[in-house]
Amino acid sequence: MSRPEFSIVPLARINAAHRWDIHPFLGPEIPAGLNRSLLEAGILHPPLLLELDGGGFEIIDGRKRVQAAREILNLHECPSLIVPPASPPQDILSLLLASQGCCAPLSPMETAYFLQICGEFLDPEEIAELFLPCLTGRDNRALLPRYRRLLALEPGLQKHVHHGLISEATVLEMLHLEVEDRTTLAALFTDFQMGGGKQRRFFSLARDIAMRAGTTITALLAQPPLQEILQHRQMNAPQKVQSLLAVMQQMATPSLYRDEQSFKARISTLDLPPSCTVLHSQAFETEEVHLSIRFENVDRLQMAAASLVQTLKDAGLSGT
């Protein structure tokens, strides 16, 4: 494989073809970090270009850098690494992978699009032998359909997967949902910054409850108990996630959920002050309830102690 040669290329000779683009899901905006880096230090990592027979050039890697050279640095030419014309596709793909690897390992979405491009030139056995080991650590061609499935995601979800906001395992399961439910869950996962474990648990509960109720996940999340949590102004994101999971766990076991709602209704009729909390046994295994009273300090407790003791005696609870 011949090495690319460094050259200064007129920007007007670089065409807009996307044949080698592994980021079609990204928008036209230039990332803030790249913008800042270019303004401070210029182009430190030259774009990789394929020289064409007609004298033009095609971008293999560095599309945003070429765009920034035009729009931010106002350049008319750009330092570039030039791949000779008529280079074998496997050589171009190897250079693309090497160029991308200078920044970070490929994300699942980048890997999916890279493998799609490979499929235009190579058969599955060649792809598995040449590229899967460095991409995934395995040369198992059975991985190829898994990555192809990611390409069916909407661009917004692809972007979330690329940035690590939704785990690959979760999003592959989400492909079985309708688009509206995928979009709803994606917004929830990213807004609340759920980790992979909580994403999988939330998805599993929401899917199972919705299927049993014959409804959609979007409609499920619109129900009052869940909307109350989602719209709560005092809870932060982690608290909302924990509360949502707790309510959904109850909804996943209908009898327990009904018992919980009945218990809350009965307690609400007692008109207890906010300083009092009543808890039932776990999963209503026994009929015991526990009343806790919050006092501002010990002095307040001492002031109320005599009345509390007498009330407990009158209720026949002095010996418990």
CATH topology of the domain at 1-104, by name, is Conserved hypothetical protein from pyrococcus furiosus pfu- 392566-001, ParB domain
Main sheet makeup: 4 strands, mixed
Mean pLDDT, as a whole number? Answer: 90
As laid out across the biggest beta sheet, the strand order is 1-4-2-3
N- to C-terminal distance: 84 Å
Q: What is the strand content? A: 5-15%
Structural class: alpha+beta
Q: What is the helix fraction of residues, given as a range?
A: 40-55%
The first-level CATH class name of the domain at 1-104: Alpha Beta
CA gyration radius, whole angstroms = 30 Å
Helical stretch tally: 16
The counted number of beta strands is 6
Which spans have pLDDT < 50 for at least 5 consecutive residues? Answer: none
Global geometry = elongated
Structural summary, described in words:
- The structure is a single chain.
- The protein is an alpha+beta fold and 320 residues long.
- It has a domain at 1-104: Alpha-Beta Complex (Conserved hypothetical protein from pyrococcus furiosus pfu- 392566-001, ParB domain), CATH 3.90.1530.10.
- 54% of the residues lie in helices and 10% in strands.
- It has helices at 32-41, 63-71, 89-101, 108-121, 124-130, 132-136, 143-150, 155-162, 168-174, 179-191, 196-213, 217-221, 224-230, 237-252, 254-268, 298-314; strands at 5-10, 48-51, 57-61, 77-83, 276-280, 289-293.
- It has a four-stranded mixed sheet. A two-stranded antiparallel ribbon has the order 5-6.
- A hairpin with a 5-residue loop joins strand 2 (48-51) and strand 3 (57-61).
- The N and C termini lie far apart (84 Å).
- The mean pLDDT is 90.
